[in-house]
Write a structure and sequence with these properties.
Layout: H1 2-27, H2 31-37, E1 51-55, H3 59-75, E2 80-85, H4 88-94, E3 102-105, H5 111-121, E4 125-129, H6 135-143, E5 148-153, H7 157-164, H8 167-174, E6 180-182, H9 185-194, E7 199-201, E8 228-235, H10 239-253, E9 257-263, H11 269-278, E10 284-285, H12 286-289, E11 298-300, H13 307-310, E12 316-319, H14 332-335, E13 341-343, H15 351-360, E14 363-365, H16 369-381, H17 383-399, H18 403-422
Parallel strand pairs: 1-2, 1-4, 2-3, 4-5, 5-6, 6-7, 8-9, 8-12, 9-11, 10-11, 12-13, 13-14
Helix pairs in contact: 3-4, 3-18, 5-6, 10-11, 10-16, 15-17, 16-17
Length: 423
């Protein structure tokens, strides 16, 4: 099956190359990024204490790495860690993680490129965060007898059904993984059904993200005159119109309500601005007014890496990616601030945490503009109920912590076994 995969990528490689070059041209040519994508990395020396190749595709997975890396280095200070990403936004966030030996773009999954990367990185173990299954990477690790595992494994129902169509291929790949450490029971069952042979539930590392030392001041984002702020996080196309219509109606009924909206992809900011204007709102970009000291009612948070802290000034959170068939974004970032969450019907990517938050009263799952407006008004009118819901959301986070320690212990154990085998 790997041979067939390589034949296919060889046939489509001209198209992939053109696509890759266009993306480089649009985002600014970066010779170092090109070299890394083609496996032309600096050669690293032998790592006496072991070297972990940790892969995090984008911002969400980098958030897991940001929690996991410090725990790993506390348990094994001599460990060397190479961290790879795929997206530029993920790389930008990864730069903030201290203690990483080398930060790279993941080399393209072509046999010769992958072999070059292995020769230069010389990993003792590979840990892929969430659901990153690169056939040649996994095969080369197996060929070199290097253990490769999935950590914080996530496999939503939607992704599961996509993989299921090609189970004949992915089953053989999953059997090459030493272990899959799944976030929850549902994820574990789906990995097993696809063909993984060693799966355990370790919990979700994202629960262990430390809260900032203090809450942002109420007017931190130019919303100081708003008594209550709604934060809509990581929104996707189509959601801004729905949220904007609901808020516009709420503002007509109640004064002092502000909106801080953070689109998932910043290249969409102009369209988001237009969508909000089209429903009668007057949005301004945070980057345009952050030093002005003005007072506003609708702010577009067009800055990467600020959303997790921005939830601290929220009366409630609206979780993006859940009102369209995307699978939902991370509600834990809001819940750790004791901020209750309003989610759409599509929270498949965070089904277990959402289900627990709904059951405990820390979140409401709904569909449509009218139901969203009703839920917003309910919590705005009843601050006691809203606070109770926020505390319930935070308890869900607190009750599920500990995954980072379990995951780090597992990695340290595998590295020790790998060292013994090499001795």
């Amino acid at each position: 099956m790997l041979f067939l995969y390589n034949v296919v990528i060889l046939l489509i490689s001209p198209v992939l190359l053109v696509y890759f070059l266009i993306r480089l041209w649009l985002r600014g040519f970066d010779l170092r990024a090109v070299r890394e994508r083609f496996g032309l990395l600096p050669e690293l020396p032998d790592a006496g204490g072991g070297r972990l190749w940790l892969h995090a595709v984008s911002v969400g997975e980098v958030g897991v790495a940001a929690v996991l890396v410090p725990v790993l280095l506390r348990k094994k200070p001599e460990l060397k860690i190479v961290l790879s990403t795929v997206t530029q936004t993920g790389r930008n966030e990864a730069r903030k993680i201290l203690g990483v030996e080398q930060l790279i773009y993941l080399p393209l999954d072509f046999p010769l490129i992958v072999r070059s990367a292995f020769r230069r990185i010389r990993p003792s173990m590979i840990a892929l965060i969430e659901t990153e299954i690169w056939p040649n990477l996994v095969a080369e690790a197996a060929r070199r007898d290097i253990p490769v595992s999935i950590v914080n494994g996530r496999l939503s129902e939607r992704s599961y059904h996509k993989y299921k169509r090609f189970q004949f291929f992915f089953s053989s790949l999953l059997k090459r993984f030493r272990d899959v450490l799944a976030r929850g029971k549902g994820d574990a069952e789906r990995f097993l059904d696809l063909g993984a042979t060693s799966v355990r539930v370790s919990g979700n590392v994202k629960y262990d993200a430390p809260p900032p030392p203090q809450e942002p001041p109420h007017g931190a984002y130019g919303l100081g005159e708003c008594e209550q702020v709604i934060v809509a996080g990581s929104t996707h196309p189509g959601e801004e119109k729905l949220i904007g219509e609901a808020l516009s109606s709420v503002q007509r009924k109640m004064s002092g309500v502000g909106l801080l909206l953070a689109p998932r992809h910043l290249e969409r900011v102009a369209q988001v601005e237009a969508d909000l204007q089209n429903v009668g709102l007057s949005p301004v970009r945070w980057s345009h007014i952050k030093n002005s000291g003005g007072k506003y009612e609708v702010i577009i948070l067009d800055a990467m890496g600020e959303l997790a802290d921005a939830y601290g000034c929220a009366a409630m959170a609206i979780i993006g990616g859940s009102f369209i068939p995307h699978g939902g974004q991370n509600p834990i970032e809001a819940a750790r601030w004791a901020v209750p969450c309003l989610c759409g019907p599509h929270m498949e990517n965070f089904a277990e945490v959402t289900g627990e938050m709904v059951n405990q009263g820390g979140a409401i799952q709904l569909s449509g503009r009218e139901k969203l407006e009703t839920a917003v008004m309910k919590w705005l009118d009843d601050p006691v109920s809203r606070k109770r819901a926020g505390e319930a959301a935070r308890r869900v986070v607190q009750n599920n912590q500990g995954a980072s320690d379990r995951t780090a212990e597992y990695i340290v154990q595998v590295l020790a076994e790998s060292d013994e085998g090499a001795a």
